[in-house]
Amino acid sequence: MKKSKITVAVSGLNNTDNPGPGIPVVRALRESKIFDVKIIGLAYENLEPGIYMHNIVDKVYQVPYPSIGSDKLLSRIAYIHSKENIDVLIPNFDAELYSFISFEKKLHEMGIGTWLPTLEQFEERHKTKLPEFGKKYGILVPHSKPINNLSEINSLVPEFSYPLLVKGKFYDAYVAFNPEQVALYFNKIATKWGVPIIIQQFIRGTEVNVIALGDGEGNTIGAVPMRKQYITDKGKAWGGITLDDKEMLKLCYKIIKKTQWRGGMELELIKTFDNKYFLIEINPRIPAWVYLAVGAGQNLPEAMVKLALGMKTEKFKKYEIGKMFIRYSWDMIVNLKEFEKLSTIGEL
Amino acid sequence: MKLKKKIAVSETGFIFDPTTGDSYSLNPTAIDILTLLKEGKSEKEIKKNMIENYDVDETTFDRNYLDFIAMLRLYNMIDENEKK
What is the C-alpha separation between A42 and A13, in angstroms, rounded? Predict the structure, then answer.
C-alpha cells in the first residue's frame, strides 16, 4: 500500500531524564504503515535534544512559551504553517495544552488538524478539581485540595494525615511527612510552577498507569496498562512493563465513556493492597512512555493522526502482555553552527 | 491449592505475574514444586514426589514446603478463591 505523505508538527522534544513525549510520538509515526511523515519539531528551549536528532525530526522551529501570550504562539504556528503546510499538530506539554485547545478552531480554519480534549474535559480533570471529578463520575480519588499560601499548612491536619503528597499544578510531586517538609516542597514547586499547590492524601499501594486514546464519542480506540519497573528520582519511568489487568482497562473505558474523552490521555492510578484503584491524576495528553504501547501492538499516535485527519479509525483489540521498555541515555555530538542557527534564526 | 491461572512459569524457573508485572527466579527444587502445583497435584503427592527424587526427610520437606507456600501467598500467587 502506498503511504500518504503528511506533515506533522510535534512539540515535547525534551528527551531528557524528565522526557516529553515528542520523540516517542515521532518514532511511532515513523513506523506508520499508512503515513509517510515529515516531522516539524516545535521547540521552546534551544537545548531540547530532539532538535538535533536529524534522523527523527526533519525541521525544527523555535516557538514562544504560551505564557508570553497565546496570540504570539498562534502567529508563530501560522508562520510555520505557511512554510511547511502542517496537516496535523500534536502538542505534548501540559503547560501548552490550554493555549492549543483555546485556539483549536483557528488551527482547524488554517487547515491544521488536531485531536485534543475539549476545554471542559481539560478543565474538569485538573488536579485541583480531582475530588469533584471523582464524585461526578463515581471514581475513587484520594482526598485533595489546593492551597495558595504557607499559612494554610498548619491547618492541614485533621483534614489530612501524614504522609501526604505535595503537587504542582502541572508537574512535580513530593511525599511530605511533616509540615516542615510541606513548606519546603510548597516553595520549591511554587517557584517553578506557581500556585495553587495541591495537597493530596497519600495512598499506599502500587502506582500503575494506563495510556489511552478516546474518539470523543465515548469510545476507547486503544488502551494499554503499564507498571513502572524503574523510577527516576523525578518519579519518571525509566523502565516499565505492560500488564494484564482487566480492572484497570474497565476503569479507563468508564472514564472515556463518561467524559466522552477526545484525545490521548494517561491515567495515573494507585492499586491498593486490597485491589482498589484510586485515580490520582489524568494527564490530558500522550505520555512519554507511549512507545511501549507501540511496541505492544497499539500505535496510538498513528491512530490519533488518523482521527485528526477525519479518517475512519478502528479500535485496537489487543496488546502484548509482558512487553517491557527500558530507557537509555545517549550523548549526541552537536556542531556549534547548529546551535547557533537555532538560537539566532529560530529554525534548524 | 492452586497457583493463579495467569501466573506463567518458564522451564528455566522464571515466573511472571502479568497482573502486577512482577517477576521472580526459582531454584531447581522450587521449579519442581511449582511444576507439580501447576499440574494440580496435592500436597501429599508433591511430598511423595520430592522425597522420592531428593535426599530429604519428611520433616525437613514439610518445614521448607510450608515456607515456600507462605512465600507464594505473600507474593499473591496463590488462587485464594480456588482454595475456598
Answer: 8
Flag whether A325 is in a domain: no
The count of structural domains within chain A is: 2
Name A231's Cβ contacts closer than 8 Å, sequence gap at least 6.
A237, A238
Q: Mutate which of B5, B16, B19, B74 to test chain A, going by most A C-beta atoms within 10 A?
A: B19
For residue B8, the chain A residue with the least C-alpha distance is A322
Q: Please give the average per-residue pLDDT across A307-325, as a whole number.
A: 96
The model's confidence at residue B39, banded by pLDDT at 50, 70 and 90, is confident
Question: Which residues are within 8 A (CB) of A222 and not within 5 positions of it... i.e. 6 or more apart?
Answer: A212, A213, A293, A298, A300, A303, A315, A316, A319
Global pTM reads: 0.88
Tell me the CATH number at A158. 3.30.1490.20
What lies within 8 Å, CB to CB, of A96 at 6+ separation is A11, A66, A73
Of A12, A27, A111, nearest to A60 by C-alpha is: A12
For residue A335, the domain's CATH number is 3.40.50.20
Residues 6+ apart with CB under 8 A from A76: A61, A63, A64
Mean pLDDT of A265-289: 94
Considering the domain architecture, whether residues A96 and A191 belong to the same structural domain is answered as no
- Mean confidence (pLDDT) of chain A: 93
Chain A hits for B18, Cβ within 8 Å: 243-244, 321-322
Cα A131–Cα A137–Cα A138 angle in degrees, nearest 5: 80
Q: Which CATH number fits domain B8-83: 3.10.450, 1.10.3470, 1.10.10, 1.10.3210?
A: 1.10.10
Tell whether A227 is within 8 A of chain B (Cβ): yes
Domain assignment present for residue A324? The answer is no
- The Cα B49–Cα A270 span in angstroms is 42
**Cα atoms in the 13 Å half-sphere on the side-chain side of A108:** 11
- Torsion, Cα A159 A163 A168 A171, to 10 degrees, reads -140
The residue of chain B nearest to residue A207, with distances taken between CA atoms, is B20
Mean pLDDT of chain B: 88
Give A135-187 pLDDT, tens digit per residue: 999 999 999 989 999 989 988 988 999 999 999 887 788 999 999 999 999 99
Confidence tier at B84 by pLDDT (50, 70, 90): very low
Q: By C-alpha distance, which of A100, A79, A78, A117 is closest to A284?
A: A117
- The domain of A150 spans 143-201
